[in-house]
Design a protein that fits this description.
single chain; about 475 residues; alpha/beta; Inosine-uridine Nucleoside N-ribohydrolase, Chain A; 60s Ribosomal Protein L30, Chain: A; 2 domains; 8-stranded mixed β-sheet; 5-stranded mixed β-sheet; 19 helices; 13 strands; about 45% helix; elongated
Length: about 475
């Protein structure tokens, strides 16, 4: 038995590494949540996993009321800079809220958001319809609460079956005893009779907990998602429950099952699959697996390199000097994008670096990888402004060869572009004060060194390096959905 478990663990590690360097994601998911604390961890894992694309999140009643869940989700997406992921609100139901509602309501998930600035009008069924319309891949529906949102949606759209890969639902294997069943028993009965595959995932016997070792494993993972889970779990009310070993890894099991199913056993009955972690796999290994999944967001998805080089001895002195602090501040993914932009562009350019930063920012906004965005640039075809186009293409993979970028005849003196993913559009532009500063800096270089002289190009390179290190992509752009 020990040898078998050891083999499975080695295979799981290899499987996880393969997923972390995948190109197109294997899993296209929609998440429904009822606002429990374990949902925050599970959603963070799903957002971080490099082989998972989260298309939308819906907020249903269970632990909290749907509007309260919506605020928590928006606050969490704000921390992760994934504001482009659409969020819908399901209908309220007449059930009483559970005894742990007060605890869950008072937990802060992310950035403080002003509810007066939020739009509570997007209903879950409308969002789900918009999300799958024209989407080419089959969808996996993740249910971290009851099945009511999905059941209501499918009732309205009985032709959805060929769009849905399966539903993964966290609930007790003794189905009628599970809270997520009790919230809406009729929804479970309906889903069961549709014939859609339903995977019921459970932490049997509650043997995995949010304990000290779990927190230590999360602390060692290098990603914004791990940091936010850590921050949330430093809140006093949560720390008390961790010390009491009251908190369990419940919904947390779902992302592990989705991407690392080799760690699970399954028993199939009709279209129901009851899933749980294989006995013999330890809590410590589950903790390590979660940490690896949280870190997969930092993968650079290389095609030629095994790992993108970060040994400073491989870089020219002026770039070696900024390497460590720039990666620490902005991440390896942006570092790679700007390095590749400079190599292909032929020099360390100002506008090309802005284009690369904007490309990384918009992929972060939609939480997608390369080759997934349609782009229209307003930088024209005349340097230096048009150099912006190179940064956009290299960072997003929306290249001329891919047919994913066009250059508008309308030219803006402020670097800007519109981006589209799955019928959702956003316009991003450099803040006017930043654009004005750049123009003044370039004008000063021309006055001091002349245009296109060796001294001018040296000046531009120094200026570009300063912009590279000083400009935070989360602070220099205006993002406007349309």
């Amino acid at each position: 038995m020990r040898k078998t478990i050891g083999t499975l663990l080695l295979m799981a590690i290899s499987y996880g590494q393969l997923l972390a360097h995948s190109g197109k994601p294997d899993f296209h998911v929609i998440i429904d949540t009822d606002g429990a604390l374990d949902d925050m961890r599970s959603i963070s894992m799903l957002l971080s996993e490099n082989d998972v694309r989260v298309l939308a999140i819906t907020c249903s009643q269970g632990t909290l009321l749907p509007d309260s869940v919506y605020v928590k989700i928006k606050s969490l997406l704000s921390v992760y800079h994934h504001d482009g992921i659409p969020v819908g609100i399901s209908e309220k139901i007449n059930n009483e809220l559970p005894k742990w509602t007060s605890f869950a309501q008072n937990i802060n998930w992310g950035n403080t958001v002003n509810s007066h600035n939020l739009d509570f009008r997007l209903k879950s069924t409308n969002l789900l319809n918009e999300t799958i319309e024209g989407y080419r891949n089959k969808i996996t529906l993740i249910a971290l609460g009851s099945l009511k949102t999905y059941a209501d949606w499918i009732k309205e759209n009985p032709n959805l079956f060929d769009k849905i890969e399966r539903i993964i639902w966290y609930n007790n294997h003794k189905v009628e005893d599970g809270f997520n069943y009790i919230v809406s028993p009729e929804s479970y009965d309906f889903i069961k009779q549709t014939g859609i595959q339903l995977d019921v995932v459970s932490n049997e016997e509650d043997r995995f907990t949010v304990n000290k070792n779990y927190i230590e494993s999360i602390n060692e993972a290098e990603s914004i998602y791990a940091r936010q889970i850590e921050v949330v779990h430093t809140q006093p009310k949560i720390k008390v429950r961790i010390e009491q070993e009251h908190l369990k890894l419940w919904d947390d099991i779902v992302p592990i099952y989705l991407t690392t199913p080799i760690l699970f056993k399954a028993e199939t009955k009709n279209n129901l699959r009851f899933v749980s972690v294989i006995k013999g796999i330890s809590q410590n290994f589950i903790n390590e697996t979660i940490a690896k999944l949280l870190e997969s967001a930092t993968a650079t998805n290389n095609r030629v390199f095994i790992n993108f080089p970060i040994d400073s001895s491989l870089y020219k002195p002026e770039f070696a000097e900024i390497l460590s602090v720039t990666i620490e501040n902005y991440g390896l993914i942006e570092w790679k994008a700007i390095c590749m932009t400079n190599e292909i562009h032929g020099h360390t350019g100002i506008y090309s670096i802005i284009g690369a930063k904007m490309g990384i920012r918009v992929m972060e906004y939609f939480n997608v990888g390369v080759n997934n965005l349609e782009v229209k640039s307003f930088a024209g075809a005349k340097p230096p402004l048009s150099c912006f186009n190179d940064g956009i293409q290299i960072s997003t993979g929306a290249t001329i060869g891919q047919g994913l970028i066009t250059v508008s005849d309308s030219i803006s003196i402020i670097p800007s572009a519109s981006f589209e993913f799955n019928n959702r559009k956003v316009h991003i532009s450099l803040k006017p004060e930043i654009a004005m500063k750049m123009r003044k800096d370039i004008k000063l270089g021309i006055q001091e060194h002349g245009l296109l002289t060796d001294a001018y190009w040296l000046y531009i390179e120094k200026l570009a390096i300063n912009y590279w290190t000083d400009f935070n992509r989360h602070e220099i752009f205006i993002i406007e959905p349309f």
